[in-house]
Amino acid sequence: MKSERIGIDCGGTFTDFILISDNTFEVHKILSNAEDPSIAIVNGLNDLNKLDIETIAHGTTVATNTLLERKGAKTGLITTKGFEDVLSIGRQNRSSLYDLNQDKPKPLILESNIWGITERIDKNGNIIYELDGENLDEIIESIKSSGIDSIAVSLLFSFQNSLHEDFINQKLSEIDLNLYKSISSQVLPEFREYERTSTVVVNSYVGPIIDKYLGNLEGKIENSNLRIMQSSGGAISSKQARNQPVRTMLSGPAGGVVGSFWISQLAGFDHIITLDMGGTSTDVSLCPGEIQKSTQTKIDGLPISVPMIDIVTVGAGGGSIAYIDSGNSLSVGPESASSNPGPACYGVGTKPTVTDANFVLERVSADYFLGGRMQLNKSRSAAALGVLGDQLDLNTTEISLGVLKVVNSNMERAVRKVSLERGYDPRDFTLVAFGGSGPIHSCELASELSIPRVLVPQYPGVLSALGVAIADVEKDYVQTIMLGEEKFDYDSIQKLYEPMKENGLYDLEQEGFKQSDIIIQKLLDVRYRGQSFELTIECPDDEKKFIPDIRNAFNKYHYERFGYNDETQSLEVVNLRLRVVGVTKKIEMKSVEPTHRLAQDSGNTNIGFVNAGLLDSKVYERSKLVPGNYFQGPGLVVQMDCTVLVPPDWKAKVDGWHNLILEQS
Fold it and tell me: Of 90, 433, 512, 646, which has the highest C-beta tally within 10 A?
């Protein structure tokens, strides 16, 4: 019997599918439906005749788009009396120190929908004031008349003692106000009132939309085991995603990083920078031998403190709109034409986009776009770009090259942010390019940053869907302890991990995993005493060297991250973290022995290059390239899900895993 599963990634322009049947792949792409993403999913599954497949893994941007577009539910907040302004006060630090005109993020909750309740718990979890039941009844009456659809509950120090939050949760459930509820001690039981409250509010803000969307999707594919990709790179059940949608904020981009790292490791490269350029944005992540994660992330200026892969996103995608700004300069993005109306060449939109510029310069092939299933209109692209060019007195070729230079510059800043600004030299890494547009721009971007090598996977346009499909199932648990190193020891720490471990094993066993397929990873959030933020390290397992191993690991990581450490400083363990991983069945790919021979081209075309202008270039069909094939640029590799641009000073070869390895001549 065949073992089958499907990975699905819903992007702003296209929804990508990859069907894994035993160890073979079948890929598919269709236009996304912004109003109801489940329509594209069901249509794609029907195209593949796999609506009843056993396992579906899904990466979604619904939560992200809901937050960015401020289209979430009307939400309320119950917090400790006297702390009603925690969200509006936030932190003193400014994202742009010298910008006097910067605005704070638009609030998710109206002041009139924030209620302070009389109760108080101290930092050790001791009850100072019992919760006032009459006050709660008054708040509930106010909630009834407020018209809110969702409620978040975040009380002071509830991560140490959840008794009062549990009581509020129970009371709201008994009255049945038909509200979507998020309780901070369940969503994020850790310290930092502002970040914790922000996270639980975001959860409630996007919750009803995600709950409705996934419930609708479950109804349409009810025979399937539906898993949702988390921002951390691991999957969770659809049920848990509906309860804690804040964990899916970077769901799709996380799949791309997981897929990239798996492919690059097979090819022998473990120090990579991922470049995922889709229709709406470009997502960049640096993996120095491992996938890096963070619990201190902001999306649209709002702190979200659940584990996420460390990804930097810029509004630079194939659908990004080019325009002339107020300073009469050419700009690109972040506004996108998305799938509707889409780039001008799709036949509906009229605004010039990055895809239109690539198409006019022959960097996108109309004959191979979506395998020839979608017709492109070059005259519409030329007309849209011509209007833009007239404003700067540039012809169509010149304005198109200008658009590409600007968007490349936007992406270059993102790569610098994850590498040079963090002490990593891009010359030590391989750039893994994917997404529908990533391989078109990758070599030009690598040249600017002196990255010596670009790896383009066999199916770059659906790599995020592949990452979603192969991702393990992960559960993350956290407990704040706030102990100086003189107060913690091996035995007491292990006892604190036990309840989290029991919960994790139970949760994964409920999802069908055997204990032999479950990996448990113990982590510590550590900082120098007096620091404001911490670093996450693995918890040592040697009882005799427990404290020295913590000190060594933290000081080493601190030096790598910030360029210095202070071994004389005492440490503080802030949080215990437990990651429980259900290992899914991996694909058993085998390398093919390359046969070194020149690749056969399928013709010529005149292609525009950012640094070389228009050049006569050869065209190669990806499906006809075999391991060992090589060629010298300039050239264009065409396939259903994307095109790969090889500039004149670059050479290409196909490795044993069917990846294209591009290097400067």
Answer: 433
